[in-house]
Write a structure and sequence with these properties.
The protein is an alpha+beta fold. It has a single domain, classed as 2-Layer Sandwich (Ribosomal Protein S5, domain 2). It has four helices and nine strands; from the N terminus they run ββαββββαβααββ. The protein has a five-stranded mixed beta sheet, sandwiched between helices. Helix 2 crosses helix 3. It is elongated, with a radius of gyration of 25 Å. The chain starts with a strand and ends in a 25-residue tail after the last strand.
């Protein structure tokens, strides 16, 4: 297993979609340092916390939940700290159960999960399900070191995400063929 595994996954549609970024690494390495530093340094609207399956039962590998969207009101905070957190915890546990994360690594690794919960989200069941699936898939992507170089190169001319799609353009005109220069005139006889 590489020292650091980075994964990404986007699952769902609309306001309840989940976008997860994961970083998995050794507790004693740079990921562990970033994990502890983030936990110790909350900032307004962003309060990293240890993800739990149930109160008093943190998921392992210990997972730091970092919200990408600043908290906007009670409903958004409940969806972030409730449904999304439960989804992230479930996704980590699924990754362990499915063998994506090795059992012997749960005590020596840590995970940072950057989690997007849209302030317009309303359906806690979808927020939970999408975050659970997205977390497991992000960890799987990190484990498998995907996307591949070929995947990236194949998609480079068609960037898109839920907030942007590059409009198709007319094909570029073919380059003009340079005119064949006229043959030099023969010297005049003199």
């Amino acid at each position: 297993m590489p020292d650091i595994q980075i994964g990404e996954s986007f699952i769902g549609e609309g306001a309840e979609a989940a976008h997860i970024n994961t970083v998995l690494g050794d507790r004693e390495g740079p990921v562990g340092t970033a994990w502890a530093t983030s936990l110790a340094m909350p900032r307004p609207g962003h309060i990293p916390f240890v993800t739990v399956l149930q109160p008093g039962l943190p998921v392992k590998p210990f997972t730091l939940f970092v919200n990408k969207a600043p908290i906007e009101g009670d409903e958004h905070s409940n969806l972030t700290w409730g449904a999304a957190q439960a989804g992230v915890a479930g996704g980590v546990a699924d990754a362990v159960a499915d063998g994506i994360l090795e059992l012997h690594d749960v005590a020596t690794k840590v995970i940072i999960a950057a989690v997007w919960v849209n302030p317009a989200a309303r359906d806690e069941r979808l927020v939970y399900e999408n975050n659970r699936t997205a977390t497991r898939r992000a960890l799987e992507a990190g484990h498998d070191n995907t996307p591949t170089r070929e995947d990236i190169l194949a998609a480079r001319h068609e960037p898109r995400n839920p907030f942007f799609t590059l409009a198709p353009t007319a094909p570029a005109p073919a380059p003009a063929t340079p005119a064949t220069p006229a043959a030099p005139a023969a010297p005049a006889a003199g």
